């Protein structure tokens, strides 16, 4: 706002100070304060130096900008709320489903273990190396040529020597190459979605072993 004459009450000037205004102010409240200020300006203007039309126009333009920003913020808050509600419903449907997310642990139970890998680009050779907690290699699985994307994998618990591996938690790593050069590949850990938590800012998908995940953290739903 442009400067106002000294005849205006200081309390009225303070109401137009953004730092003094309440965080809960609305566009209607801002318009009401502006109109009170404008009327007070006109009542207290110097007859020999009347209010400049350009000054009034400038103040109206500033009010329009503030009002527009306030309405835009309200619209954004509504959109965010709708998006979070949609996320909550979508996430709730995942409860009881298996998912793959970044991680390198592998749980073997009843001769069954699920895992996955995500390739950032096509590869002409890839292998999965499964190890125990001490780093001993249990099995190596050749994947051959693969396209870019995520790929679920299954291990039946059979070790390289043909014996059965005991139930428990194992580690695995993926090695991939393209034209003889190593390329990035992401290990994907399997987990079951148990609950969904809705917070003020986001929706978290709780998966034992993987923690609280965002929807964007899930690479594949099984």
Question: What are the defining features of this structure?
Answer:
elongated; alpha+beta; 222 residues; 2 domains; five-stranded antiparallel β-sheet; Immunoglobulin-like; 13 strands
Q: Strand share of the residues?
A: 25-35%
Q: How much helicity do the residues have? A: 25-40%
Arithmetic mean of pLDDT: 80
**Rg to the nearest angstrom?**
32 Å
Element-level helix/strand string: HHHEEEEEEEEEEEEE
Cα(first) to Cα(last) distance is 59 Å
Shape: elongated
| Whole-number total of structural domains | 2
* Structural class determined from secondary elements: alpha+beta
CATH topology of the largest domain: Immunoglobulin-like
Instruction: Quickly count the helices.
Output: 3
Can you name the CATH architecture of the largest domain?
Sandwich
Please report the first level of CATH classification, the CATH class of the largest domain. Answer: Mainly Beta
Unreliable sequence segments: 1-8, 10-24
Number of beta strands: 13
Instruction: Record the strand order, biggest sheet.
Output: 6-3-9-1-13
Sheet with the most strands?
5 strands, antiparallel
């Amino acid at each position: 706002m442009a400067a106002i004459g000294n005849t205006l009450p200081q309390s009225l000037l303070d109401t137009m100070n953004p730092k003094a205004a309440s965080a809960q102010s609305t566009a209607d409240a801002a318009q009401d304060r502006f109109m009170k200020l404008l009327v007070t300006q006109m009542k207290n203007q110097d007859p020999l130096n009347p209010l400049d039309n350009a000054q009034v126009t400038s103040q109206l333009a500033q009010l329009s900008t503030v009002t527009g920003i306030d309405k835009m913020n309200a619209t954004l808050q509504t959109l965010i709320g709708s998006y979070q509600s949609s996320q909550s419903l979508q996430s709730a449907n995942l409860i009881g489903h298996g998912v793959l997310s970044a991680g390198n642990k592998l749980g073997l139970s009843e001769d069954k273990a699920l895992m996955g890998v995500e390739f950032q680009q096509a590869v002409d050779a890839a292998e999965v190396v499964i190890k125990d907690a001490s780093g001993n290699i249990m099995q190596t699985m050749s994947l051959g040529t693969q396209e870019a994307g995520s790929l679920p994998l299954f291990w039946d618990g059979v070790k390289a020597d043909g014996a059965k591996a005991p139930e428990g938690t194992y580690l695995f790593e993926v090695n991939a190459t393209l034209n003889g050069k190593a390329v990035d590949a992401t290990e994907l850990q399997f987990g079951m979605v148990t609950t969904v938590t809705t917070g003020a800012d986001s929706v978290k998908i709780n998966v034992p072993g993987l923690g609280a995940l965002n929807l964007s953290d899930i690479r594949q739903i099984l």
